[in-house]
Amino acid sequence: SAELLPPSTIRLDRENISSIGKLRDQGGTHSLYLQQNKIERIENLGCFPNLRFLCLAGNRIQRVENLQPLPHLCALDLSHNHIQVLDTEELPQSLQILDLTGNECTHQHGYRELVLGALPHLLQLDTQPLRGEEEEGRHSSRGQDEDDELLPEPCGPFTVDKGFFTDLRRELAGRSQRRRKEALEEHRVRLEELQERRDLLLSLDR
Does the keyword Coiled coil feature in the UniProt annotation (predicted)? Predict the structure, then answer.
């Protein structure tokens, strides 16, 4: 029921919509549901500057575009569209959850590595949580508080339960601590290297 939705949510799924060019933010919208329509183009979303959750699954979209005006977007569902080639430069780097299942672009060469390299804060790709070396190998300067703030509410079309987001927060806490330790260790090593070079230069000048 629309009456049960929070005021920060707009739900227009299954409304036979073909264009979103005339949408307008009603003020502080965080979640926008537009799945199962006939939308062919991503456009006009700059009027939702606070958007964090966007669902465009099951439409007719052919290109990922016009998402850069959404600096706070952390969950994006573009599953089951007609996207053949993915331009990762069009994806906001704030994304933590991305779903492109059912699109031809997921079969392009190096797809997974391309996405992981472009989105440093990604926690879930195509319904699969990111764990292990592929996630640990990516560096981020974000702290735990920022990570928690960007996590979406446990609602919407993504097929995960509420416990998943609790686990994500726990993982983020551990990762933030590891990142801080790694950064300090790297800083220490760099200082030692600089000191060695300085000593070497001084010895050559004598």
Answer: yes
